[in-house]
Amino acid sequence: MKLPLTYYGNPILRAKAKQVTAITDEIRAFVNDMLDTMRESSGLGIAAPQVGKSLAIFITAPPIEEEGNEFKQAPPQVFINPKLTEPSNELWIHSEACLSIPKVSGDVARPLEITVTWLDLDGKEYTKTFHGWAARVIMHENDHINGVLYIDRIPPEQRKAIEPQLRLIKKKY
Asked: What single DSSP character describes residue 22?
C-alpha cells in the first residue's frame, strides 16, 4: 500500500529516528508499504521518516550501470539500524534529488565508498562496503534517519538559488 510522503518543512524530516528494537510483523508490513511507496514514486530509495515514521529504516534500489552506458535499477535492499563507517577519502560530486523535496536538485559531494553494518528483515546482521551509486543512495537515505537533508550538503550558492522553491514546497505541503 502506498503511504503518504512527508515533505520539506515537516519536522519529522529533521529529527533523529529511533532505533528498531524488534523486527515484528508490523515492521515487515511497514517495510512492504515503504517499498510500494518507493516504487510508485519512482525513487532510488526511501527512509521511514519520509513516510511519517521516526524509525531507523531505509530501502535502496540504486542504478546499476550495464554495457553501453545503460542503467537498470538494483533489487531493493532493506537496511534496519544502519551504522556507516570508513568513508573513502575520494569524493564524488553528483546531482541529488529527493522524494520529500519535489522538483529540486543540487550537487552533493559524498565519499565514493562507505562501509555499512545493518540488520535485514530477519534480524540478520551484515557488514559490507558499498561503492559508487549504491554508496551514494545509502548515504542519502541514512541522512534521512539522522534528520539531515541533501540540501544541507549542497554548496551555499546553490542553496540560496533554490530557497524560493523550498519556501513554495513548505507552503504547498
From this structure: -
Average pLDDT over residues 129-149: 98
**Exposed / middle / buried, residue 64 (Cβ in 10 Å: 0-12, 13-18, 19+):** middle
Describe the chain by its helix, strand, coil percentages, rounded to 5: 35, 35, 30
Average pLDDT, integer, range 77-100: 97
Grid coordinates standing for 69?
552506458
Q: Which domain holds residue 91?
A: 11-172
Task: Supply the residues annotated as catalytic.
Answer: 141
The DSSP letter of residue 41 is T
Output phi, psi for 90, to 5 deg. -75, 125
| CB distance 154 to 108 below 8 Å | yes
Tell whether 75 is covered by a domain: yes
Residue 154 sits in a domain of what CATH number?
3.90.45.10
**Residue 59 placed within a domain:** yes
User: Confidence band (pLDDT; 50, 70, 90) for 49?
Assistant: very high
Mean per-residue pLDDT, 131-152: 98
Number of domains in the chain: 1
Provide the whole-model pTM. 0.95
